[in-house]
Amino acid sequence: MNSSSTSNQIPAETIASGGAADLSPPAQSSWQIFVRFLRFGLLAWGGPVAQIAMIRRELVDEERWLSSERFNRLLAVYQVLPGPEAHELCVHIGMLAGKRLGGLLAGLGFMLPGFILMFALSWLYFTIDITQSALGPIFLGVQVAVIALIVRAVHRIGEHVLLDRWLWGIGAASAVAALVGASFWITLPAAGICYVLVQRGQPAVAAIALLAAALIAYAVGQESGILPPLSPGTASAEGMADQPSVWGLFLSGLKAGLLTFGGAYTVIPFLRDDAVGSGWMTDAQFLDGLALSGILPAPLIIFSTFVGYFGGGPLGAVAMTVGIFLPAFGFSLLFHERLEQVVENRTLHGFLEGVAAGVVGLIAATTVELAVTLIPRLPSLPAGMLIFALALAVLYLWKSKLNIVLAILVAGVLGWLLFGIYG
């Protein structure tokens, strides 16, 4: 359940059985492991679905580094854990080929191209006043497409997470709680506990617990609800007055990395809460970071590099990237031998299923909040709705790993054509 991307669920009987005899990777030097997974990183277009399919095709079907059954079991484990599972699979398979050093090099190779590209784009974006250049209408159109991208992600994640009426109820309650200002530190654990109670045949207790948690979260009031739109454009000197420390950016990334149940899109509300809520980014900049990550060969979660750059410059970009990827490295490198035990723990599964439903609600609420802040900045609402509809149509109707790239590029062109006339 770690990602919307893995739409084909692994059958329980496949996970439970050992299947074919497990194979072993061929002898690989550290350099060979790094280069192999660096190549995967350079070709990592189209999100986790395409990335996992690429890894399976080359290392399982063609080169037989491991059996299909083994790959399925690993994928099932990483669906349960937080973090980008394509990256986690690379670390784990790298360990099979070269022990812990091999796992570290495989993970670094896979993420390095996206990190370098996003770092360079962050520097360029930071040095250009977007709103005062010809790029302003283009980026405004792209921001509309990002809203469509998140809407599609909510649907895709939800159809694999919200599998019964209780999970739907938990997701809806979490969305409402987020919109009225409830803290996810309360609502997400409560969502997991409630679903465990439901599975144990105590629905009345679960309903009472969910309601009580929502009331407590609202009373505590640790979040501000719908964030007011901040001034669009690039960061200003005044905005930089509230820069977080490098350590704070690392912790922000680490928190987000530990909470990415349901795929990379689930990191959006947590990073937005820190970045936009604390005032060192605007919603416009946040949407631009998401758009840029969507056109790079990298896990979507690489937009954290962009967020960190706005919070603390080059060191901030590195700190947040390290924080957000640390769990993805750590689970494989430290708990390599014990990870598959997670598959057998049904209580933990129930808790994580409830948490995942709550996260879907958080993403839905964040989508509403981002749309609310974007609408007043559109020069023409009908033009914005047209871009949104076309981007959504591309994402739904064109079944290609490049549909995200096309949607963003088309939205940019339409933004330049439609919004530019109002400039």
UniProtKB/TrEMBL annotation:
Membrane topology: Multi-pass membrane protein
Keyword hit for Cell membrane: yes
Pfam families in the record: Chromate_transp (PF02417)
Name of protein: Chromate transporter
Localization of this protein: Cell membrane
Molecular function as annotated in GO: chromate transmembrane transporter activity
Family: Belongs to the chromate ion transporter (CHR) (TC 2.A.51) family.
Gene Ontology CC terms, in alphabetical order: plasma membrane
Entry keyword set: Cell membrane, Membrane, Transmembrane, Transmembrane helix
Superkingdom classification of source: Bacteria
Transmembrane segments: 104-128, 134-154, 166-198, 204-221, 246-270, 290-310, 317-335, 355-374, 381-398, 404-422
Organism field: Aquamicrobium lusatiense
Main location: membrane
Keyword Repeat in record: no
